[in-house]
Design brief:
Elements (H helix, E strand, L loop, with lengths): L14 H20 L5 H8 L9 H24 L1 H20 L4 H29 L2 H33 L2 H21 L14 H12 L2 H30 L8 H26 L1 H25 L6 H27 L6 H25 L6 H21 L20
Helix pairs in contact: 1-5, 1-6, 1-7, 3-4, 3-5, 3-13, 4-5, 4-7, 5-13, 6-10, 6-12, 9-10, 9-12, 9-13, 9-14, 10-11, 10-12, 11-12, 11-14
């Protein structure tokens, strides 16, 4: 038997290498966002962008392409397999990075960033599909947790990485390094990861098959509810990322060159939480961990909103950082497990499911995050208001999804072949 690329089927990498490879693929998507943050003022100077909030579009343009393209990759990967689509996506990602490096105007850069996002979408969508092909239930959650741990370490290093390249060779070189890293990860994937789509799960390329797969996704209560939850939580993250340089670096707390270090403190918290989640999920279960963490998160975001107003929009830096670390910790527990819970019942259409869920959550998160980011007024009040409102609404959605039951493990109907909680 051969894969769609004509190569013989191989057993594939073990657990640890699978986690590392999937994390590397997903890490490319995070690197393309966070490595650019220290360079935003320099990009603005290069292209004469006077309005600081407008520079957030460098982040959000990438995310728009990233979100829309996910609709395409999933269904095609259910037809042709995972390998060809990952390789094609990485090629587009590399092309987008190269075009960005040679952009001659701000509009051209934004178009190139959309292209870069379109390519990165393949790594994000199909990486998750590969995990679902090989694992299910709590094992899938465990892989996703360890993957998210590595994935969330990337934002810790990316701003420092971008700032260093910026200082040594200018902002255009950041894109050149992105292209080189994408080539390296692509070669690793090509050599080590076999085709993971089981032949019996291949679907014909037809409008009807895509509609049928979409119907399975949108009629599953857990998939719909947890997808909404992921999207709204992701909006909080994008709201912070989009305005982080202004809040911490240039306008709010004015940390300047210390911005990457402050950003890293928040980002590393997510990695620590994902690691702990990966160790606990097999014992405690996805529902207990995610629901309990979300309840705490709502309380923390409410306290953050109150404090932001009490201190006139800019609490002391130490207090702001403490609140961000605490919120990020419990946010990471919730969203890691919500990703697994959304996909767990959809094994028969894993590619399309990952595609639709990824596109939906990315676009919801990008639009919501942009609304928060564009509301930046020199204070953290818009950020705090967005955090509290979105966290509270998301909890209501989870309550609907679970029919009023929280913290209670149960079987996920339709899981193939899921491990019961």
């Amino acid at each position: 038997m051969t894969t769609p690329t004509g190569l013989p089927v191989r057993q594939g990498p073990g657990f640890a290498e699978t986690v590392a490879l999937i994390a590397a693929l997903m890490g490319l998507t995070a690197l393309a966002i966070d490595a650019m943050l220290p360079a935003l003022p320099a990009i603005g100077q290069s292209f004469g962008v006077a309005e600081a909030n407008e520079l957030q579009l460098v982040v959000y343009a990438y995310m728009i392409g990233f979100g829309i393209a996910q609709v395409v990759y999933g269904p095609l990967s259910d037809v042709w397999g995972r390998r060809p689509l990952v390789i094609a996506g990485l090629a587009i990602l590399i092309a987008g990075a190269v075009v960005s490096a040679f952009a001659t105007g701000f509009t051209g850069l934004l178009i190139a960033r959309v292209l870069q996002g379109i390519g990165a979408a393949a790594a994000r969508v199909i990486a998750v599909s590969i995990v679902r092909d090989r694992y299910a239930g709590r094992e899938m959650a465990r892989v996703m947790s360890f993957t998210m741990m590595v994935f969330m370490v990337v934002p810790v290093l990316a701003p420092t990485f971008g700032g260093l390249i910026l200082a040594l060779a200018g902002w255009r070189s950041i894109f050149a390094i992105m292209a080189a890293l994408s080539i390296a990860v692509g070669l690793w994937f090509f050599i080590r990861m076999p085709e993971t789509l089981h032949p019996e799960f291949r679907r014909p390329l037809s409008v009807r098959s895509i509609v049928d797969a979409a119907r399975i996704c949108v009629t599953n209560r857990e998939a719909v509810g947890y997808s909404l939850a992921i999207g709204l939580l992701f909006a909080m993250l994008m709201g912070f990322i989009g305005s982080a340089e202004q809040i911490l670096g240039s306008d709010g707390y004015r940390l300047g060159a210390l911005f990457p270090a402050a950003f890293a403190v928040v980002a590393i918290t997510g990695g620590v939480a994902a690691f702990i989640n990966g160790r606990l999920v097999r014992t405690w279960g996805m529902h207990r961990l995610s629901h309990g963490s979300h309840l705490i998160h709502v309380g923390l975001t409410g306290a953050f909103f109150v404090m932001a107003n009490l201190w006139g929009g800019l609490p002391p830096l130490w207090l702001f950082m403490a609140m961000m670390v605490a919120m990020q910790f419990f946010f990471s527990f919730a969203i890691s497990n919500y990703n697994a819970l959304a996909l767990d019942p959809l094994g028969e259409v894993a590619g399309t499911a990952s595609s639709l869920i990824g596109a939906f959550t990315t676009l919801v998160g990008t639009i919501g995050g942009a609304l928060i980011g564009q509301a930046f007024d020199g204070t953290v009040v818009p950020l705090a208001a967005g955090f509290f409102g979105l966290s509270a609404v998301t909890l209501l959605i989870v309550l609907w999804t679970e029919r009023g039951r929280l913290l209670q493990p149960h079987h996920q109907a339709g899981a193939m072949p899921a491990v019961a909680e």
